[in-house]
User: Fold these one by one.
Assistant:
Number 1:
Amino acid sequence: MPFLLRNLALSPGEEERLLRPMAAAKLGVSESSITSISLVRKGVDARKKGRIKLVYTVQVTLSDETRVKEGGDVSRVEPARKEQFPRITSKERIVIVGMGPAGLFAALRLAEYGLSALVLERGREVERRGTDVARFWRAGELLPESNVQFGEGGAGTFSDGKLTTRVKDENCGWVLRQLVQFGAPPEILYLAKPHIGTDRLRAVVKGIRERLIETGFEIRFESRVSGIGLSSGKVSAVVVNETSEHPCDALILAPGHSARDTYAMLHRAKVSLEAKPFAVGLRVEHPQALIDEIQYGRNPHPELPPAEYAQAYNNEKSGRSAYSFCMCPGGVVVAAASEAGGVVVNGMSGYRRNGPGANSALVATVGPADFPGESPLSGIEFQRDLERRAYAAGGGGYLAPAQSLLAFLGEGKGRVASSYRPGVVECELTPLLPAAVAATLKEGIRHFDRKMRGFVSAEATLTAVETRTSAPLRILRGPDLQSVSHPGLYPTGEGAGYAGGIMSAALDGIRVADAIAARLGAGKPEA
């Protein structure tokens, strides 16, 4: 039976082959008795700037276990059992809407049961989508159905490809193994903060599509769902592009957090929705070398990964919080609009994270009390208003308004230098934000600087506006994961209000697929 060993530490630059004799010493056995050793987890401990360590958890098998004492950092682990999925024979017609993480992993999971589905994606396949997005960034030519928000892979395709999540779910390992199978770097299986990078993620998405087609799925791009049909009070069909209708017995709806016309269609169809809190703000950009120095100390070891950060601040009087979000080491700030006449910013990194800049969203919480009116769609109007203000301040052409961090705080001038394309226009950002949001952000930024001395810097630039942190509403569902108002409709993922990022969205898609399989008689998958 294998053993798990925690807290093995190496200095940056030390070779990982040294883990073997360290493991032997910790177990109290000879090195020759170790028959295999594999990485389970690898992270950076940067709490002491002068003594940064790489900390490992490893799994070890031994030829002789009699001398091993368990306890502390040493424990036995049960060998992993191969996942087994019962095969289902069913004539049920399943339609999946959306090819973001929730839709793709719902499809992959259904395939494990021998089921297939019609998959509808309003945008284009990832190869053509990449060309469309590049044109938008270069020339400001926005395609409403093929952009950073819409298309194969979802919004996360043009991001850092982070796979961290606070969700404790037995399927986390299954998701990671699937991603590696389709081309993700193998180290995501053990890194404490795994990521794929936008460049590799696009190839992974293409690989998933090809596998689904091989297993009997039908995939249609440029197919926007414009309506749903009912029969005996249950969802029975979807309308595509306002022209064609497709029957279905189960509709997995994974729309993405920017599918505003889909939300409006659901509202007209009287699907139960509710407005929910989210966060809005700005995106900050520093030189990556500055963030490395803040987090690691002066002259950090060249083999350390580009430094990251995550900061949060809570104002107990106002009840609002400010926090950093979607931090992209070695990345760029990107134009992420999906509607004409609005500016939206986001961040993106490649796998190597080797660009000169580090960027992150700096956002403050907002909720239904801040939104205009009582409609469940009111959060969308709140977002649109901010995006249109930013577009006007940029002067059109999807130029983004920008300001130095020092100037935003009223503490000096600083410089304005941004990787955002098609370009930025320097202006005051405070008037573009709700007063409470601007005030909370300024309080939060000063708090972040106390935690990360040097964060408030003349080299830092802010761009506006970051509004697409999460869905502005939730499509209400019951314990069976079906819409509380429309049986047969399975809302899932970030756009349905049940996830926040690639990993949690994929997990929610799996949850829905398992629910459908269980209803068809599969039972729970065995691990």
Number 2:
Amino acid sequence: MTRAQTRQHAKRNQAPGIVGWRFIFVMLALAMVFVVLVARAAYLQVLEPEMLVTQGDLRSLRVTSNTVLRGMITDRHGEELAVSVPVQAVWADPKVVLERGSQQDERRWQALAEGLNMSTEQLNQRIGTDERRRFVYLQRQVSPAAVDYVRRLNVPGIYFRQESRRFYPAGEITAHLIGFTDIDDVGVEGIERRYNTLLTGTAGRTLVRRDAKGRDIEVLEREDAQPPRNLQLSIDQRIQSIAYRELKQAVLTYGATSGSVVIVDVDTGEVLAMANSPSFNPNNRRNTPVHHFRNRAVTDMFEPGSTIKPLPILAALEFGSADLSTVIDTRPGMLRVGGSWVRDVSTRHGELDLTGIMARSSNIGVTKLALSMPHQHLLDLYFSMGLGSDTGLNLSGESSGMLSHRNRWSEHELASLSFGYNLSVTAVQLARVYAAIGNGGILRPLTILKSEQGLPGERVLSPEYAKAMLAMMEAVIEPGGTATRGRVDGYRVGGKTGTTRKAVAGGYGDDYVASFAGVAPISNPRFATVVVLNEPASDYYHGGEIAAPVFANIMSAVLRLKNIAPDAERVRISQRQGGRDAS
């Protein structure tokens, strides 16, 4: 037998067990894999199909939106006070930046940092080292020139996003009233905050499905954008500019720490101007102290002093304890009330009628009138004139003032109340009081929105006494009155001065608040104006010396601006000279 035949015979006799078991094992393994795959597929398709749908949607669904700019704020004539301008934000995808090695191109990376006004170290810190991050802002509200520069660099992983930036054309003139927004265009102060919801629209939204190449293949949902509303204020930008200019000059001239001016249309309750000084630039608030942002005309309270004296006189007339012919003896210039003294500045007033009490600002005169009636009647008139309550403006931070509701008042407390102590008001509250006197005795809520008719009012004074008070206020401006510097050439105006010490712990300090509240023109009242100067540092600190001239300058410009005919040559409402000196 040859060797080849022997080898073939051995192969035929060899047991095939090992080869067979290998084949069986492989087949069983394949079968198990197949069963597992089928089971997994059945589980995903039948028991948990939502997960597959979700994963598919994450890879194919995209939401696109369009930017909606914030609504404009304009004055009553359509002049823009706040507008939104489109700008760009620069952002980065850290994963792309790190994977593409954008930081390795040192020359381009340095140029990018300089274009964004930061160092390369700051830029690297913004990007970080975490490749899982996909979005980080590098700079927001970037100028068009800077965006164009960065775009030309073409740095991988650096992208742009459209947003808007708020711009205030009037700057510091309307800063406290309009307020401002934050970097996300959300109102944080003033009108911007109060009407944030109205001014903010809703961006449009479109849900689309895209293929692997990023092409839109199906629109699933579409929501139209809800445009924002524009806001038209009652403010007259021309009057606002005049008021701010004169107030700022007075604050600087007399070294006051601050000041406020409010001008109200007496017929509608519309606020035509509301200015504060010192102000700030709302377009660049960097390094501005936070306390400069508050609108002092609505937030800051002060004791009104003699500017409140029309109210006790009107209360006595309404109650009947005095009439238009009443004469009060103010001699000898001081009066002991409830264990304390009430004094007049001058001891030579003698007998004064009601006009004389107003013109010479007699504390004794109003004290006797206040004590001639039940205290509740006096308080009721104060409350009915809007003291101790908000004005209807509903501006952020508005104060309601302070006027106690208690039932027991000592005689000296009532006396103090009659000449403007033991209560606090804001500039807008005082303007509302004088607007009610100017329109014949109807108290209306104030409004900062344009309203030709105004909101419904409530009669709080009889027309006869409101008209008589206008004549008394005019006497304050005439020779012999306390506010001769408040006169306006060619026009009849009236008002009342106020000078009060500022309260400190345990009493009153050496700082003053000088104020003037007035109405113009007297023959047909149109405007109620309040001027407040806080803590003047000069030798002049009386309301008649420093606040009345501001009123005169403002009203002189406003009356001519509104083309109101001069009325100084017409017959006076009253010819009374204001008093009778003692013989």
Number 3:
Amino acid sequence: MMRQFELVETVKSYDANVDEDALNRAYVFSMKAHGAQTRASGDPYFSHPLEVAGILTGLKLDGASIMTALLHDTVEDTDTSIDDIEQLFGKDVARLVDGVTKLSRLELQSEQSKHAENFRKLVLAMSEDIRVLLVKLADRLHNMQTLHYMRDPEKRKRIARETMEIYAPLAERIGMQSFKDELEDLAFRELNPEARESIVKRLEFLRQRGGDLETRVSQELQYALDGEGLKATVRGRTKTPYSIWRKMQVKNVGFEQLSDIMAYRVIVETVPECYHALGVLHARYPVVPGRFKDYISTPKPNGYRSLHTGLIGPQRQRIEVQIRTREMHEVAEYGVAAHWLYKQPDAELDSEAIGQGRSVDGRQYRWVRELLDILEHASNPEEFLEHTKMEMFQDQVFCFTPKGDLIALPRNSTPVDFAYAVHSEVGDTCVGAKVDGRMVPLKTPLKNGDQVEIVTSKAQTPSPDWEKFVVTGKARARIRRFVRQKEREQYHELGRQMLQKAFRQEGYDFTEKAVAGVQKRFKAENVGDIYVYVGRGDITAREVVHAVFPGAKESDKDRKIVPIQQRPKSKGGRRDHAVPIRGLIPGMAVHYAHCCHPLPGERIVGIVTTGKGVTVHTIDCETLENFQDSPERWVDLAWEADETDEPYTGRLHVVVANEPGSLGDLSTVIGKNRANISNLKITNRSVDFFEMLVDVEVTDVKHLTNVMAALRASPVITSVDRARG
């Protein structure tokens, strides 16, 4: 265990201006606060914060960060309060300690929600000061190093999964490769010990068989570069067992097929020398196709810059070579910490200035801003955690805006993901996309190097269908928030109209005041919630009426359904008191039945489904027979009188002659009648005929009737009918 004077001297070795007195007081305070507490290993508990502080001195962090490491568990595990920390060590240290605290006092319902809430607060804290994340990662690293002392195997696995899913990706996002590698490997040891042991044994076998192969390859690469007058340092390394395992899983290849089990780093002085070294090696050794990546001209979002290439190198070994400058190498190893002010010899800033400086502001990092945006739009901590895992745990593609700005996205991202990455409003109003100048569907997966131009419209809003194909957490969070908000609006409007109709049917005047009087009975906070419950089908409109007027109650079994075909119509075909549905977004409060495909102009009825809203059927739909015993679920519906160009889908059963050009004639006739084929399925084929189902987008039933008449006039069409079921 590091002694007090050793810690102080270590910090002074790279920060001559550190407040020695405060550092000494923090050491003593933490040791006394933890007192006789012990860890699972049997060591004094104080050894943990001291080891965390030691890890951070390796990154040459400032005095405030080291004091935070010493104090980070005092608020959680002792009687110390944040106010005590602020009074003794200042606002800067108190704010950092508060950000790092595990927040175990949160009274949440489940372990998962507790973890999600803790992570949500960590993101908020690190957005204010990135040092919070550095201390937290060091804390997690030491906990993982001592995880094997914990007796409960389930708890060990839970901590290891949490490390793999959250903390290792976070370390990668800030470029701390050494932290990421060690966290992943320690978690891998716990989660899949057999696989790790197998890879370790195979690596050991390779070392024994190849002898000092790593040294020989390094020397030959060094000789090749020296011969061209390049001052370079060559270092070899074996990849970690987990990174080897993950590549085997992702690429679906065996151990022997991996080309980069051995990786070599060539470190030079300048960027031109990086490309010079690349040319030397490519001229001397065969290149493995598809293995070259230029992260110097196109850096990773975490600031990583390097040239990667695969070679059949010295000793006929398949190797990966990474070429970078010394500065790039420090960033690659230590990420954010490599830019720390105290690593500059001429830095003369006190800790307060650093605490206020831009170097610690987490929001300067794009990925932190994206996490904050997800946080703003997620409905609960668990959803935030889900979107965040999705955001951080995927490989990336790099695309460009028309102005040449680089946008990094997870693999399989679409133009909608790209639009949200550019700006939330661009995503919300996205109507189309051009990739390399060509219009493409919004669900098209993007590839490395694509130039993407987003077409927007002020009239556009996010589509619920987008959630089926977007992959970024930010896009999914924005879409879900819009859908939740819009669904509530739709349920509110539909429920209000259903209640008005129910009141009229029972002979009462509808008033909001009357409905407000029973909101407590239905556990609603306001009248709007009652409307939403009715529109969503959680309660029926008649239940609300009977709650307001108990004397009006009658048994559903005694209530007879008057066939809708026999109900009187008012002028213009609109039934009296029918609930209008035009203006409600399909797929939210209303759903059009796929068994009958109702169209404007047809008589319609709705069936209320709990939690889903209303499903619209035509009045002659055979499916309605299944609901004859549930009169409370029927809603009399009508289309609004005003006409719009909104497309509706009508399904046709068509028999076409089996001859060249017949399908072309079919689509030509439909197109000439201002309709559009949205789907086509051949159900039967014989020598003479095709039978098919054709979904046609039309404006109303009259439009579909005209299309059917035109099809029947075509000589290649044998028959056309509305498809049912």
